[in-house]
Design a protein that fits this description.
The chain has eight helices and 16 strands. With about 260 residues, it is an alpha/beta fold. It folds into two domains: about 90 residues, Elongation Factor Tu (Ef-tu), domain 3 (Beta Barrel), CATH 2.40.30; about 160 residues, 3-Layer(aba) Sandwich (Rossmann fold). α5 packs parallel to α6 and α6 runs antiparallel to α8. The two termini are about 30 Å apart.
Amino acid sequence: MNKILEKEHFSANVVKLVVDAPLIAASRRPGNFVIVINNAKGERIPLTIADADPVRGSITLVVQAVGDSTRAICAMEPGEYLHDVVGPLGRPTHIENFGTVVCSGGGVGVAPLLPIIRAMKEVGNRVVSVLAARSKELIILEQQVREYSDEVIIMTDDGSYGTKGLVTQGVESVIQREPVDMVVTIGPAIMMKFVALTTLKHNVPTLCSLNTIMVDGTGMCGACRVTVDGKMRFVCIDGPEFDAHKVDFDEMMLRLKSYQK
């Protein structure tokens, strides 16, 4: 059982939860995720760790209400307990001083991107962050991202904040004006696909974090399988991060629709 310590609404359907999890907080690294179950009969929900405080023994999760279980988690309040929080899972992000790194996040994808932005900056990279959403109210964690970025570019579909346009336009604007050594992209599958296509044109290495259907999170069920460079990989143990230029996004998006009804 893991106690919810704090709660903050980013929007009507997106909630930040600070959860008591001392062992996870002490060992987690950027890119790791957890499996969360709200009650004994709840679904297993994979969530990337957005932040951690080893001293307090807490981790920060950002949850988007999509189905019954995520709606139930978002409805919980401080003082209540999640039934299980298991982790850290997955392979951590490879962090090094690449030079100039563009970190692009769409919607709630900014949450798992934040610890990567911080880690990339701490090892000496120039970090340009591109945050994108449909509208201003859906841009999350902007101030935290600004703290660790040399520059922040905001893109909104409707032009209500920052520049009107898509995340790919923001990424390409940086590549066009200066040498970029690495791009990291996290968000909806369709967004990551087109960021990868954009950077492939310019031969810029690109890392993506995949958000496939997941059940056990330990490589046993096979639900999260994807094709990377023509080979089957499990997102939970081989990822969640992969070379975006080698991911079969079309196949992945078809599998994401398996339980759409």
